Amino acid sequence: MVSPSLDRQKEIYLNGFAGVQPLVPISNLLMEEAAQRKLSNRAYTYIAGGAGYENTLRSNRTAFEKYKIVPRMLHDVSTRDTKIEILGQKLHSPVLLAPVGVLELAHPYADLAVGKAAASLNVPYIFSSQSSKSMEDVASAMGNSLRWFQLYWSKSNELVKSFVQRAEKCGCSAIVVTLDTTMLGWRTRDLDAAYLPFLEGRGIAQYTSDPIFQKLMEVEEPRAKRKITLQTISGLVQMVKNYPGNNFFLKLKSGRPIKAVQKFINIYSNPALTWDDLKFLRTITKLPVLLKGILHEEDARKAIDFGMDGIIVSNHGGRQVDGSISTLEALPSIVESVNGKIPVLMDSGIRGGADIFKALALGAKAVCVGRPYVYGLALAGEQGVKEVLQNMLTEFELTMGLAGCKNISEITPKTLARL
After folding, report:
1. Whole-model pTM?
2. In whole angstroms, what is the distance from residue 409 CA to residue 58 CA?
3. What is the band of 221 on the pLDDT scale with cuts at 50, 70, 90?
4. What is the pLDDT of residue 223?
5. pLDDT given at position 419
6. How far apart are CA 136 and CA 411, in angstroms?
7. What is the structure's pLDDT at 406?
8. In angstroms, rounded to a whole number, what is the distance separating the alpha carbons of residues 18 and 120?
9. 3-state SS assignment for residue 19
10. DSSP 174
11. What is the pLDDT of residues 351-390, one digit of tens each?
């Protein structure tokens, strides 16, 4: 029996025989190049860029080259099982969609298109705090499919509580606290473009749809002086368009779109956070809590001490600290330090099925995929995201079988050799 994942390979070849090419290039390199051509320069810069000289961005990829898969022969792999269980939740594969903000830069349907694609393939989607669509709208589009919520811890605990409660109500089954963006990294490409999408009111739908945030907007924020230029006016028009409501002129007259952006910029991150703040989160939700951004084994042990339910080894896709340790390099010591007490997931640098295999072999329970699906979104919307996922899942299952593994438990450090 051919597996559903491998049906994708057959589909591509048969479509090609009929003269029909995939909507999204199979090669990650060609896909990114195609997306770059379609996206505006500012949008591509925001999606693709990293911090500083982008050493971390590169090392997230080169770290995979240090490990080689060692295939084993004559192991019956006629049937393969990619299912796993995390936090009592059953997944069809060890892949989740990482939270990525401001997806409207890639496609107008943004998070809605991603959610629908994920749901169609039973791939869990981690909603972003910096989304372009509200969590309620995306949850409604996904039906009963699995989703988690990524929490950016703002300066207002009241807003944090509201976000978490909304996530619970719309069916999110875990909270992922992103720890590594308490300040925005020195993102060279964005700075060269002098562009931050939030100033246009992009990527703040979770906030403008939140009743607590609406109340917080009543407190005036200091207004930064702006030069009045055609670009300023264009940005203001975009800001008003992105604010909820249909009447452009009423929104403009109210001044609330400007207030929303000002409040967001001043509240969204909190560099004063400490480990003790996690206790507050435990008082407001019974959902499992994972910490995203862990790169040091001592922090991993602290996560256990503070009662966290999981870890995501991440360096924010290389967007925060230039010269940071890569996630694959950090993974083995963190897995060893938690000693199976809580699940360890990994993101940053995953580009294909072989990468997934290597991460699992080094102890990751699952991986989170980011930029590839965003490029698929830019090229073909919902269907583009779906094709990227289908390709990645098919390559992973093929790699697993060709390496002599018929299920996830057989993917161990012994399946790799380090150079």
Report:
1. 0.95
2. 30
3. low
4. 65
5. 86
6. 37
7. 97
8. 25
9. coil
10. -
11. 999 999 999 999 999 999 999 999 999 999 999 999 999 9
3-state secondary structure of 144: coil
Q: Lowest mean pLDDT of 161-165, 179-183, 257-261, name the range.
A: 257-261
Same domain, 158 and 247: no
The count of domains in the chain is 2
Residue with tokens 């559903």: 4
Return d(Cα 303, Cα 294) in angstroms, integer: 9
29 and 121 fall within a common domain: yes
Reported in sequence order, the residue ranges of 129-274 that DSSP labels E, i.e. its strands, are 147-152, 175-178
Q: Are residues 172 and 195 in the same domain?
A: no
Of 238, 267, 296, the domain-final residue: 267
Rounded to 5 degrees, φ, ψ at 344 are: -115, 120
Per DSSP bridges, beta strands 366-369 and 344-346 are: parallel
Residue 226 is part of which domain span? 190-267
- Is residue 238 domain-resident? yes
The dihedrals phi and psi of 268, each to the nearest 5 degrees, come to -65, -30
Query: What CA–CA distance (Å, rounded) separates 203 from 173?
Result: 23
Nearest-angstrom CA–CA distance, 374 and 345 = 20
For 67, the enclosing helix (H) or strand (E) is: strand 67-69
Amino acid 310 reads G
Nearest to 148 by CA among 169, 171, 119: 171
pLDDT tens digits, one per residue of 41-56: 999 999 999 999 999 9
Q: What tens digit of pLDDT does each residue of 277-332 get?
A: 999 999 999 999 999 999 999 999 999 999 999 999 999 999 999 999 999 999 99
pLDDT band at 1; cut points 50, 70, 90: very low
Burial 397-411 (b: 16+ CB within 10 A, else e): bbbbbebbbeebebb
Kindly report the number of other CB atoms within 10 A of residue 232's CB atom. Answer: 11
Looking at every residue in the chain, the average pLDDT score rounds to 94
Query: What's the token pair of residue 297?
Result: 């084994």
| Residue 144 pLDDT grade (very low, low, confident, very high; cuts 50, 70, 90) | very high
Residues in CB range of 232: below 8 A, 6 or more apart: 226
* Amino acid letter for position 304: I
Q: How far apart are the first and last CA of the chain?
A: 37
Q: Which CATH number does the domain housing residue 295 bear? A: 3.20.20.70
Q: Outline where DSSP puts E strands in 249-390.
A: 289-294, 310-313, 344-346, 366-369
Active-site annotation, residues: 316
